[in-house]
Specification:
heterodimer; A: alpha/beta; seven-stranded parallel sheet; five-stranded parallel sheet; about 25% helix; about 30% strand; B: alpha/beta; two-stranded antiparallel sheet; binds flavin-adenine dinucleotide; binds adenosine monophosphate
Chain lengths: ~300, ~250
């Protein structure tokens, strides 16, 4: 058995945390070959992850923005000889891997939270309200891994790095632009502390209260869907069933009611704190510590006193 | 241009999901079922394209049990022109996997020759997020997933996608498959007159065999369990008390 693991690459750099966690997840399945659709430097970094046997780097124009059509062609072309194709469950992987699976005539297995054996996998369904264990009958298993529950593999490896040729761009789609917001804060899905705001924040300006607390805690900032829909926060801050899944040591929910779709993205956090003026808010049912108070008074005071 | 919109009948997103104690699955008998929320957004977008003169006909397709008729009637009441129901299961608990759905959709597309297939980003029951990408692969078409804005212009569409780092804009040649995200639009409610009218719109019934597709599952569900539940913790009476609690728990 051998796995081809597609590394997380964002803006030309290796997403080390997600990739190293995925290595831990797939390691029990045998040899791990990491495929980097990106620059050589990202490949060199991936080669240092413990447990990686080999790194393949495919760097070419058609793949630079990881457009699904050429990327899927490339992965399909490399799939021979592997029993498993896997990737951390990023938006890129969710875009590319189901396309690969269909080209190989196998089912996609998304958001795997546990690998029980070579063909048996656990994954959440119904916004995490149920866990399903499935056994695949397909010859090749195609998985995305929900990395939050795995520890990152250590560094210290020195796997050989090989270049593989790119693919000819089928020309079905073209990249136009990326609109990426830069922030000095830690990345949401790997941050040890996350502070999220909801509709209760009331405005874009109000989010500064959340951001100040986050900065005090060295935390990433998240948001509920309602806060993103209302324009208080950018889309890539959304935590939940259809946003990002986080499992930090500490998650602070401010002005968030605790809808199941939001809980789906954060209920595996080690420690949850909720601040909401409604003592009946469902978020308190999952919070370790709660404070029923007006956030506009409580959060600045908390920021001061920490 | 014709637009094909696959719509799935799923448990209503407001219903509290109950996992059966024997691990055999989630209880779907006698619970409220609705159109997958993402698919409502896809139907809305298709109708808007029609209203803007960019689409000619909107065809809704559902694959599942016969009761998915209701979901198709909802799409028709919103403004779709006709519907295709592919009866592929007898039992509400039998889910048709995205690979089989994609094969059926690809076959429908070969017959109907749409310029665009507008899918939801994910079905809120299986949370697989795969059907659009698989359908595009089987047809050899371009794909644009997680759309929050779609601009159709002649034989191409410019799509803004919600991705991990923010937004990505891509241009796809048509025909293409686009999967829609929640912020694309706010779907309309069907008015009573339109619900009445929808009853007379054509709804064609098919089977997977009509398209030569085998829908037997590739994934065998061994068990379905309830996730570990969290317990409610303690309430602090003041910010000071919260700070003390956080410090003594060692989390800050
Ligand atoms: C298909 C689908 C997918 C979805 N995916 C997601 C997802 O990924 N992520 C997500 O978050 N949601 C998602 N949702 C939406 C979800 O159902 C809820 O609507 C959303 O999470 C609500 O956000 P909220 O808690 O911020 O807002 P609300 O539910 O409106 O809660 C606001 C809270 O703020 C409190 N509040 C107000 N003012 C103050 C104040 N001054 N001080 C303190 N507290 C205050 C209120 O008491 C209330 O509890 C999805 C929904 C659907 C249908
Ligand atoms: N049985 C089905 N019938 C019609 N459309 C479906 C079906 N299953 C999935 N789809 C479409 O594919 C999208 C993604 O579903 P999934 O890949 O299952 O998460 C849905 O939002 C629908 O648009």
């Amino acid at each position: 058995m051998a796995t081809l693991l597609i590394a997380d690459v964002a803006e030309g750099r290796l997403g080390l945390d997600a990739t190293a966690k995925a290595v831990t997840a797939v390691r029990p399945l045998g040899d791990v070959t990491v495929l980097v659709l990106g620059p050589e430097a990202a490949g060199a970094e991936a080669a240092q992850i413990d447990g990686v046997a080999r790194v393949l780097v495919a760097e070419d124009h058609a793949l630079a923005h990881r457009l699904a059509e050429p990327a899927a062609e490339l992965v399909r072309g490399l799939a021979g000889g592997f029993s498993h194709l896997a990737a951390p469950a990023t938006s890129d992987a969710k875009n590319i891997l189901p396309r690969v699976a269909a080209l190989l005539d196998v089912m996609m297995i998304s958001d795997v939270t546990a690998i029980l054996d070579e063909s048996t996998f656990e994954r959440p369904i119904y916004a995490g309200n149920a866990l399903q264990t499935v056994r695949s009958r397909d010859a090749i298993k195609v998985l995305t891994i929900r990395t939050a529950g795995f520890d990152a593999a250590a560094m210290g490896g020195s796997a050989p790095v090989e270049r593989v040729p790119g693919v000819s761009d089928p020309g079905l789609s073209a990249w136009v632009e990326d609109r990426v917001a830069k922030s000095g804060r830690p990345e949401l899905t790997s941050a040890p502390v996350v502070v999220s705001g909801g509709r209760g924040i009331g405005s874009k300006e109000g989010f500064e209260i959340v951001e100040k607390l986050a900065d005090k805690l060295g935390a990433a900032v998240g948001a509920s869907r309602a806060a993103v829909d209302a324009g208080y926060a950018p889309n890539d801050w959304q935590v939940g069933q259809t946003g990002k899944v986080v499992a930090p040591n500490l998650y602070v929910a401010v002005g968030i009611s605790g809808a199941i779709q939001h809980l789906a993205g954060m209920k595996d956090s080690k420690f949850i704190v909720a601040i909401n003026k409604d003592p009946e808010a469902p978020i308190f049912q999952v919070a370790d510590f709660g404070l029923a108070a007006d956030l506009f008074e409580a959060v600045p005071e908390l920021t001061d006193k920490l | 241009m014709k637009v094909l919109v696959p719509v799935k009948r799923v448990i209503d997103y407001n219903v509290k999901v109950r996992v059966r104690a024997d691990g055999s699955g989630v209880d779907l008998a006698n619970v409220k079922m609705s159109m997958n929320p993402f698919d409502e957004i896809a139907v809305e977008e298709a109708i808007r394209l029609k209203e803007a003169g960019k689409a000619g006909e909107v065809v809704a397709v559902s694959i599942g049990i016969r009761q998915a008729q209701e979901t198709l009637r909802t799409a028709l009441a919103m403004g779709a022109d006709r519907a295709i129901l592919v009866v592929a299961a007898e039992d509400v608990h039998q889910d048709i996997e995205p690979l089989a759905v994609a094969k059926i959709l690809a076959a429908v597309a070969r017959e109907e020759q749409p310029g665009l297939i507008l899918c939801g980003k994910q079905a809120i029951d299986n949370d697989m997020n795969a059907t659009a990408q698989m359908t595009a692969a089987l047809l050899g078409w371009a794909q644009a997933t997680f759309a929050s804005e779609i601009v159709v212009d002649g034989d191409q569409a410019t799509v803004t996608r919600e991705v991990d780092g923010g937004l990505q804009v891509v241009r796809v040649g048509l025909p293409a498959v686009i999967s829609v995200d929640l912020r694309l639009n706010e779907p309309r409610y069907a008015s009573l007159p339109n619900i009445m009218k929808a009853k007379k719109k054509p709804l064609e019934e098919k089977t997977p065999a009509d398209y030569g597709v085998d829908v037997s599952p590739r994934l065998e569900v061994l068990r379905t369990t309830e996730p570990p539940s969290r317990k409610a913790g303690v309430m602090a009476k003041s910010v000071d008390e919260l700070v003390d609690m956080l410090k003594s728990a060692g989390v800050v």
